[in-house]
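Field notebook, page 229. I keep forgetting to write these up properly, so this time I am using the form the group agreed on. The chain and the ligand, ribulose-5-phosphate, are recorded exactly as supplied. Prediction of the bound pose follows.
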Amino acid sequence: MTFDRSIKIAPSILAADFANFGAECEAIETQGADWVHVDVMDGHFVPNISFGPTTCAAIRPHIKGVMDVHLMIAPVDPYIDAFAKAGADVITAHVEAGPHIHRTLQAIRGAGAKAGVALNPGTPAAAVEHLLDVADLVCVMTVNPGFGGQKFIDMSDKIRTLRAMIGDRPVHIEIDGGVDVNTASSVAQAGADVLVAGSAVFRGGSVSNPAPYGENIRAIRAAAEGVYV
Ligand SMILES: O=C(CO)[C@H](O)[C@H](O)COP(=O)(O)O
Ligand SMILES: [Fe+2]
């Protein structure tokens, strides 16, 4: 994975057909997705359960590019090796998920993946200030985590603060939750480069009719890049 700050669209397969993950991953990549965002929920850190490392390993052969695994679980550390072995390129843990996030990020890198740290809407940017040398990505949640399809919460000030804090470091700013054609431009202007979008990408399409995925991805990218289609 090489670092660049261009806009990357990362569809969340939380909005895909759960009976067809392999074909859904192939469809979104064919339709222009840059990364594939994989939401892992434990029914404890968040009030919903999705799937775990076995499912990640099963979908890995169907993803050519970056598999971006968002862990909404606590604790994190006992499961890092399993997600790294499952083929995650990026593993993101929440700063709220335990008392030793610095150690967790070191362990993620130690397992061979890029280390991401996520912030719930109620957590300030300052929570990652002393983590930026052990993190490859900061994920700013623009919904309270646990479910797809929720209303976007404006975190522009937090994104701008993070952008200034990160400076020249090779650290991505990812936005997760409620990203669509209407919200993409403000988060990109504030300094985000990875835009996760679930419902706004999968809306209107299916594996047998994937063209809407491409239209949705292009529209979100155009909005983020400031070229409205
Ligand atoms: O982490 C998540 C929820 O906790 C999802 O990635 C996020 O909600 C994406 O879905 P949508 O674009 O539909 O909001
Ligand atoms: Fe997510």
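OBSERVATIONS:
- Residues 8-225 form a domain with the TIM Barrel fold (CATH 3.20.20.70).
- The mean pLDDT is 98.
FOLLOW-UP: compare against the apo run.
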